[in-house]
Amino acid sequence: MMGAGKTAVGTQLARILHVPFLDSDEEIERAAQRTIAEIFERDGEPFFRARESEVLARLVQGPPCVLSTGGGAFLSEQNRRVISESGVSVWLSASVDLLWNRVRHKTTRPLLRTPNPRETLRELCEKRTPFYRQADLSVESEPSISIEQMAEKVIEALVTRPDVLERIGG
Ligand SMILES: Nc1ncnc2c1ncn2[C@@H]1O[C@H](COP(=O)(O)OP(=O)(O)OP(=O)(O)O)[C@@H](O)[C@H]1O
Ligand SMILES: O=C(O)C1=C[C@@H](O)[C@@H](O)[C@H](O)C1
Ligand SMILES: [Mg+2]
């Protein structure tokens, strides 16, 4: 979900693993030369989702990396398949309260530009959880767990799953 720490924890995880960190949101913005909010405004969400799927399909073909997807990417069956064919998916879960505390001060997230963004966040979480649960691994974020500790928790979760590790060459 938005604010779960995909970019923050992903960056740290990539550092520990000595692989590049890529962020599909950033790739989309760079290619379009516009922000995600501008893309949503001018071209609409379906256009953004199409670009997102293209970017994911391209990035998973590249060298090993930590890839942060947008919060909505895993809702698409096609994206889930593309990701599971070449990598390990990690759900960074968090309570609505924690997510809200992290995203409330920023107005850059187009899906939260609603009259009641906290309620929108809650509804999105509820609707999306069944999809996020399909990730290979899940790591829960809590207020007391730092970004660095979250990255360590992802690695701990990975090493307890040899079946999953095998898919990325051990
Ligand atoms: N474990 C953590 N401890 C403290 N702060 C955190 C933690 N995880 C994330 N944050 C902070 O919360 C904010 C949101 O995190 P981040 O941008 O990584 O979320 P995201 O999952 O990439 O969101 P989006 O889907 O909108 O891109 C950032 O300011 C980040 O530094
Ligand atoms: O949760 C979502 O659907 C989104 C999250 C962001 O990462 C961006 O991909 C965009 O703002 C949509
Ligand atoms: Mg992000």
From TrEMBL:
The gene is aroK. Keywords: Amino-acid biosynthesis, Aromatic amino acid biosynthesis, ATP-binding, Cytoplasm, Kinase, Magnesium, Metal-binding, Nucleotide-binding, Transferase. Signal peptide: none annotated. ATP binds at G3, A4, G5, K6, T7, A8, R109. It comes from Aliigemmobacter aestuarii. It catalyses: shikimate + ATP = 3-phosphoshikimate + ADP + H(+). One of its GO terms (molecular function) is magnesium ion binding. It is an enzyme of class 2 (transferase). GO terms for cellular component: cytosol. GO terms for biological process: amino acid biosynthetic process; aromatic amino acid family biosynthetic process; chorismate biosynthetic process. Pathway: Metabolic intermediate biosynthesis; chorismate biosynthesis; chorismate from D-erythrose 4-phosphate and phosphoenolpyruvate: step 5/7. Catalyzes the specific phosphorylation of the 3-hydroxyl group of shikimic acid using ATP as a cosubstrate. The lineage of its organism: Bacteria, Pseudomonadati, Pseudomonadota, Alphaproteobacteria, Rhodobacterales. Mg(2+) binds at T7. This is Shikimate kinase. PROSITE patterns: SHIKIMATE_KINASE (PS01128). InterPro entries: P-loop_NTPase, Shikimate/glucono_kinase, Shikimate_kinase/TSH1, Shikimate_kinase_CS. Belongs to the shikimate kinase family. It is found in: Cytoplasm. Transmembrane segments: none annotated. Binds 1 Mg(2+) ion per subunit. Its cofactor is Mg(2+). Its main location: cytoplasm. Substrate binds at D25, R49, G71, R128. Monomer. Its EC number is 2.7.1.71.
